Amino acid sequence: MIYNILNSIFKIYFSFFVTINCVGFFVVFWLIPEWIQTEDVTIPSLIGETYQNAASTVIGIGLTLDDQIEEKPSPVNPNTQKAVYAKGIVMAQNPLSKTRVKRSKPIRIVLSTGSEMNSVPNMTGKDIQAAEKILQESQFRRGYVATVYSNQHPKENTVIAQTPPADTALQRSGAVSLLLSLGVRPQAFEMPDLQGMLVNDVRSILKSHGFKIQSVDYVLHPEIPHGQIVNHQPAMGTLIHVGQQINLEVSGSHRSQNKRGHFYVIRYDIIIVDNQPKHLKIYIEDGLGKRKVVDTYYESSMKIRKPYKISGNARISIYEDGQLVKHQEIQ
């Protein structure tokens, strides 16, 4: 009885042993050599092909496509603002073209889902802050900003025109460029000869015509009496516009150095994020009045280190896109 049981167990183990050895022999002496000797295949470029064409090309050279096919939105051409790849077009593959692989290696591809288009809103007549808010809500971004004087749009920073025009289909996150009004073109005058006039009279005349005095410097003069204009900039005969700043040189020496003014270096760093231009304005308010010394759009980050002449106590106010970002008191 025990003998028969042991004999049966032996036969089972022997059969299992023979089977394992046969399988191992098959793998070692036939399957592996067959796989090793399989000819490598050069992968063709599938970029720009439809899925059907890509599958046909791959099958034709004895390869297969991976069952997991990834789909992504197409990148946008910055010049045309349109999708580079239409929906259903192969825009990436792995392994890359010209790579040599075994025939058993599947190829993974990424198909384009096309572009996600929105209609460009109409921003004509809006101020820059409102226009930027509308662009953001419509999933667009502000592009280039240009400025021009416009009698038809007297309010400063009003949108006059836009590119692309309103109702144009545009890729989401696409750029919309704006043309802004600088307001009515200032009236031009020919600068008169102020030499010999009293500085107080000149102040009144310039102010009544909409001009601003930027600086008044006192110098000794052998012939021109105290308190009269020695020189001025812009010079006589120059075309000047309302709001322009005038520099005066006055005969006399009784003013202290502090009264004549001194130079102060304004330091400010412009930080540009996501290529969004910024409109920077800097105002100085001192003994000479309030004046705007910077009014510029910046499209790249920049460090401002520029000296300006101030007289007495002064306030410096810095605005980015109409928002006060820095206020400084100078004693």
Would you give an account of this structure?
This protein has 331 residues and is an alpha+beta fold. It folds into 5 domains: 1-37; 41-112, Trypsin Inhibitor V, Chain A; 118-181, Trypsin Inhibitor V, Chain A (2-Layer Sandwich); 188-255, Trypsin Inhibitor V, Chain A; 262-330, Immunoglobulin-like (Sandwich). The chain is built from 5 helices and 21 strands. It has helices at 2-36, 51-60, 128-137, 199-208, 257-260, and strands at residues 41-42, 70-72, 90-94, 100-101, 108-112, 117-119, 141-148, 159-163, 169-171, 175-181, 188-190, 212-219, 229-233, 239-241, 245-251, 262-270, 278-286, 289-298, 302-310, 314-320, 323-330. It has a 4-stranded antiparallel β-sheet, with no helix packed on it. A 3-stranded mixed β-sheet has the order 2-5-3, with no helix packed on it. The chain has a 3-stranded mixed β-sheet with strand order 7-10-8, covered by helices on one side. A hairpin with a 2-residue loop joins strand 17 and strand 18. It starts with a helix and ends with a strand. Mean pLDDT is 82; it is low at 254-259.
Gap from first CA to last CA: 116 Å
- Pattern of helices and strands: HEHEEEEEHEEEEEHEEEEHEEEEEE
| Proportion in β-strands | 35-45%
Which CATH first-tier class of the largest domain would you pick? Alpha Beta
**Quaternary structure type:** single chain
Q: Structural class from helices and strands?
A: alpha+beta
